[in-house]
Amino acid sequence: MTERNVYNEADFLAGYLNLPRQVHGLSGAAEWAALRDLLPEIAGRRVVDLGCGLGRFSQWAAGQGAASVLGIDGSVEMLDRAEAEANSPKIVFRLADLNSLDLDLNSLHVDGQPTDIVFSSLALHYVRDLDRLLSIVAAALAPGGSLIFSVEHPIYSAPTTQGFVEVPRGDRVWPLNNYLIEGERLTDWFVEGVRKQHRTLATYMNSVIDAGFRLERLVEWGPHADQIEAGVGSIDDLHRPWFLLVKASLAAD
Amino acid sequence: MTERNVYNEADFLAGYLNLPRQVHGLSGAAEWAALRDLLPEIAGRRVVDLGCGLGRFSQWAAGQGAASVLGIDGSVEMLDRAEAEANSPKIVFRLADLNSLDLDLNSLHVDGQPTDIVFSSLALHYVRDLDRLLSIVAAALAPGGSLIFSVEHPIYSAPTTQGFVEVPRGDRVWPLNNYLIEGERLTDWFVEGVRKQHRTLATYMNSVIDAGFRLERLVEWGPHADQIEAGVGSIDDLHRPWFLLVKASLAAD
User: Fold this and answer.
1) B140-169 pLDDT, tens digit each
2) A31 vs chain B: nearest CA distance in angstroms?
3) Do B240 and A216 count as a contact with CB atoms less than 8 A apart?
């Protein structure tokens, strides 16, 4: 039986494809500038885009002069659109579910060569066995290779109810609960029952460390004051981060 | 003008000295087992206990066969008690405020020798300039040296009100707000106006990395099920961590 993938569902796509980040590409993703700041030099490097969706990062990396770009996604609907949009012969797309066992070392290589940079935007929070995936990523990278990823922040993914509330004293608060209870979370996002994996920030960090990486930078991302002024998020977003951005690398030896 | 240090105030001490962790020593600190698991071998190593308070960790480290133990604290009241209790000629105590400029490289050395292990329990959240302190710690450590510390978890230190509330839907929640707004927090803890520094988890991690350390392990600590059953904390403590525990090390070169 094939696992449900909401990225193949018409009702989900109707909403998802109208998000600013899909309509406007990377510049429509409010955290893109912060994520880009974590990237090493792209020119001449082999790049993997894990959970590439419509392939906008893949396109950008090709435009930056990447030697090759491999976009991987589990949704046929996403990859069809990504291939139709792709603007460079250096980009290759592959269909693979990050949760399934058909993703192995070779599926992260282009022409049998190890990769230099693995990038993943807002995909790893769907992955059940993160340790396994990170060990494959580490094995697929060349010495000195980098992993840069973003996920929904654990403070965001934890609670029963993901919305601000007013408490008796009058403060607006993020109603945090179940932070230390890891596992599946079902949320309604364009469709009902979108499955994500909640893990604590420490679990993300320790999984990256245990896969052999050295942590280089963490960003607990929320919109900046000037973005809030421009209508991206609101003043409430100072109360808790949206995303966790991470840069890690392998020893150069 | 000397800065206020509540650890010298009679009203504060009346409450603080009756905490389980002061009455019973390390075994009265619910997170001690998790913190101990982060420690490298102590025997034969030079150890610094930063913010040693009553010196219970210093005593324990001496008992484990440390070559030397240097306990540093900014409170005369704490150090007087620590010296009265000290049970080993290997332990030396020094009065130094972690915020003040009188803490330098030499003040972390015993007999002019670099240290092997710097330990700090629930002290760094009082320190305003963490980057400066960590750079001193890194310089005072021998190659391969370790830093192990605990602080109040940023999720705990952030909110306007540090207490669980019930929200309209009926959930018990930790009323998180102001997480991304770093800086001073005034809390009432035995006395009014205890000053702590709130910084995000990312800031803690990046400060450790920028000081030259490699992050080895993070623990977002809350009481375990068997501790909760024994009356340490409550089921609410699954909603958010109490403490952040960190292990980091310098390259061995």
Assistant:
1) 999 999 999 999 999 999 998 899 999 877
2) 15
3) no
Tens digits of residue pLDDT in B53-79: 999 999 999 999 999 999 999 999 999
Domain spans in chain A, listed from the N-terminal domain onward: 6-154+197-250
Contact at CB, B177 and A174, closer than 8 angstroms: yes
How far is the C-alpha of B125 from the C-alpha of B114, rounded, in Å? Answer: 25
Report pTM. 0.95
Cβ contacts of B29 within 8 Å, gap of 6 or more: B20, B21, B35, B121
Under an 8 Å CB criterion, which residues of A touch B? Answer: 155, 159-161, 165, 167-169, 171-181, 200-202, 205-206, 209, 214-220, 222, 237-241
Nearest chain A CA: its distance from B164 CA (Å): 10
Cβ–Cβ below 8 Å for B180 and A241: yes
What CA–CA distance (Å, rounded) separates A85 from B6?
Answer: 63
Q: Which residues of A touch B202 (CB under 8 A)?
A: 218-220
Q: Is the CATH number of domain B6-154+197-250 3.40.720.10?
A: no
Q: How far apart are CA B60 and CA B19, in angstroms?
A: 19
Question: CB–CB of B201 and A216 under 8 A?
Answer: no
